[in-house]
Amino acid sequence: MDDAKKNKIEENIDRMAREWYLSKLSNENEGKTLKLRNAIWEEMTKLRFSPDKTEIMDEQFSEEWIVFMDTLEEITNKFQPDVEKSSFTHYFSSTYKYRLKDAKNDKKDPKKNVSVDQEGGNDSERSQYNPKIQLKDKSISDPSESLVIVDFLVDMMGLILNFSDKHKGKANNSRKKLWYHIFYTEDITVFSKQLYKEKTRVSNNIHKTDIFRVMRQAYLNFYMSNPCNSIEEIAYTPLKNYEEIIQNPLEDQIGMEIPSKRKIPAEVSIQYLNVCENIKVSDSARSNQKSEYDAEKRGLLL
Question: Which pLDDT score, from 0 to 100, does residue 102 have?
Answer without folding.
Answer: 78
